[in-house]
Write a structure and sequence with these properties.
Elements: E1 7-8, E2 16-19, E3 24-27, E4 33-44, E5 49-54, E6 59-63, E7 77-82, E8 88-93, E9 99-102, E10 108-114, E11 116-117, E12 124-129, E13 132-137, E14 142-148, E15 150-151, E16 161-165, E17 171-175, E18 180-181, E19 188-189, E20 196-200, H1 210-216, H2 220-227, E21 231-236, E22 241-248, H3 252-262, H4 268-278, H5 287-293
Antiparallel strand pairs: 1-2, 2-3, 3-4, 4-5, 5-6, 7-8, 8-9, 9-10, 11-12, 12-13, 13-14, 15-16, 16-17, 17-18, 19-20, 20-21, 21-22
Amino acid sequence: STLQFWTHGDFNGVMAPVNGNNEWVFIDKEGNTLRKGYSKLFHSETAKSWAVWTADNKTEAYTENNDSIPFLFGHQVVNTSSDMENRVLYFVKRQDGLFGVLDTTGQEIIPFEYENMDLTVKGYIPVMKNNLWGIITEDNQPVVPIEYKAVFLPIERNQTNFMVRSTDNNIYNFHAPSGTLNAQAFSQCTSFSNGMAWVTIPNDPAPNTYLNRVMAQSTVEDFNQKAAMNFGYIIDKNNNVVFPMPIPVGYTELAIQAILRKGMPLTISEAHREVLEFTKHLRHYGIKEDIEEN
């Protein structure tokens, strides 16, 4: 037998992609060529369709049953996602460079007026204009104004608070219902989960203690140089500190679960006991010595 294809994909519907001569070709289950001449391709399990790029970098799109999707032809980028109602959405970059969103009938859901756009996350879509980012809903309602250097994607639905990086390069807590930005500046953060987020405060290094070095897995010498500025606190939506012990970001979920278990906020001694519990498998001596040091 002879080698026909260098690589291939699985069958989805009636067609499968194969590549054997520096181009992608679609074949049917009998090996007959259905379509050919593509430089790259993308399959969407969500939309049950293929987006393909021709040699001149124009898009075409077909269903898994080899039917054309004409309204997706000729664009620069086609990607897919599903919204909160499990509708299929096509995220499209036109040849003029602007992004918008279409539904499966070709109807415009989000107008083509954005310079950049990410896929929908928990019902929210990050969008860019004039090189600044904001957030809109899946029905094009504003959530976070388009005036920030970066926006942090939500990890839960029905969010009220979003972390944003301002043009001064600091991170702030934006309250969407009131449209207000809390004045407290942060240097690093996570998105809100269960009404809480991990944040680091500029110029506020963690103390170089044994317990903190254990959490950072750092030596005494390296701690001040590298790790100390990567410790933060857990805050609530009003920027109140609810876990008053500095921790690295990897301990965020443990701290949040401890707060939910005990109630907000924890005292310093309660937070300290939790950190001792978090690190007991990493420490080389007993709780008594840890308590005395810290």
